[in-house]
Design a protein that fits this description.
alpha+beta
Length: about 100
């Protein structure tokens, strides 16, 4: 009986973890869309990146999310760069954005 209770707790913990990952993934996509709309950008490409491979590596927490994006602005100009979403302490619960644009070639 004790083993069944432990297995049930592990199973429930896994379900909660999967739900949280799915929620954060969907929430980060919505936050990125909101950032683009706030700045009158159209997102052409977006890719979620682990912090280790971004310019934000040393200044981000695990609660924040980083995307590499290619956007089109109101004038039709395209830009590429990195967008960090969320705050260091509360993650995506706080509407906060930091952008680093790639230098044009």
């Amino acid at each position: 009986m004790h083993d069944v209770a432990i297995l049930l707790l592990i199973f429930l913990g896994a379900i909660v973890a999967l739900y949280l990952v799915a929620y954060e993934s969907n929430n980060s996509k919505e936050s990125l869309k909101e950032w683009a709309m706030d700045n009158n950008y159209q997102i052409i490409e977006q890719k979620l990146y682990p912090h280790l491979f971004t310019p934000f590596y040393l200044s981000s927490s695990k609660l924040q999310v980083v995307y590499k994006v290619r956007i089109k602005d109101e004038s039709g100009n395209e830009k590429e760069g990195w967008v960090r979403l969320g705050s260091r302490w509360t993650g995506l619960r706080k509407k906060q954005y930091k952008v680093i644009w790639n230098k044009p070639n």
